[in-house]
């Protein structure tokens, strides 16, 4: 067992588990930061927090960063309890295994490996590629409408893929969407504080999403469930996740269909984090074209909401009508004059250097939609009315 005096060093009480697991993880092929090593000695000379790469800590005790020893790949470790979150490993590995893993519509975070804790039969350690929050505004803002469109198009495509495979995420809050930082941070970033470089000595170098069009992923399947249509309409107890605003969550005693709730929470991210100004309740003008869709996705009655596939089809149709100048408009509300001026300079640079305001994939897709579709399309999936009821029907009071 670890010495109780260790809690006086840099690792906190919440990091105690990872310090105790250092040797076991090393033997499994993963190296934690030096401060977790059994022979680590706390510096005798005080250092300023910003100069101390061991000081920043993950917000959640079950999360830890590591390096894969064989190739230096940066990964994230997540310790999960089989008894509490029994579907976390099951759902994660489902989408990380062929044929689902090979589908380009699959945006579930790849599970690289699942390690059994030798000291606790209830614990599994999931190994995933290191990502950063998709909505990290401080270091990685949304500079254009095109960047917002690309982000939410991937998110909705990924959730639709989950629903097609009869899996409800059940906690589609903004914290559970991440982005691959490989090209966004060309020189790397600190695993906890993305604003800093890996050595925690200076600010990290970051490029715009427009310059590389990163891939977005869905994480955290601890509350996810897979359903069987043959069992009829299934209703689940309310999950008190990150977003507690869905109308069906006001009465926790009443079970609800989790699929419409996924649709609501995605629409609510758009409504609360993008359509609203920082200083008021008015809509952010460049994204106002999404307001009707957001209103549909966040309807009071769950059964009146579109399926995620229908919402994606509507999203594609309205986004396909946007001009280049509309796609280059600010992605988030700029309530400060300086921010607005900097955006104008950035967009002028992109214009004169012929930088496309949308990813090549969406540019081609939306060009095809403009040529072939005159009205908002109806989603071709699901075609079976009984199956559609699985995604929309609610239980009578």
Automatic annotation (TrEMBL):
This is Protein kinase domain-containing protein. It comes from Mycena citricolor. Residues 30-397 form the Protein kinase domain. One of its GO terms (molecular function) is ATP binding. PROSITE patterns: PROTEIN_KINASE_DOM. InterPro entries: Kinase-like_dom_sf, Prot_kinase_dom. Gene3D superfamilies: Transferase(Phosphotransferase) domain 1 (1.10.510.10).
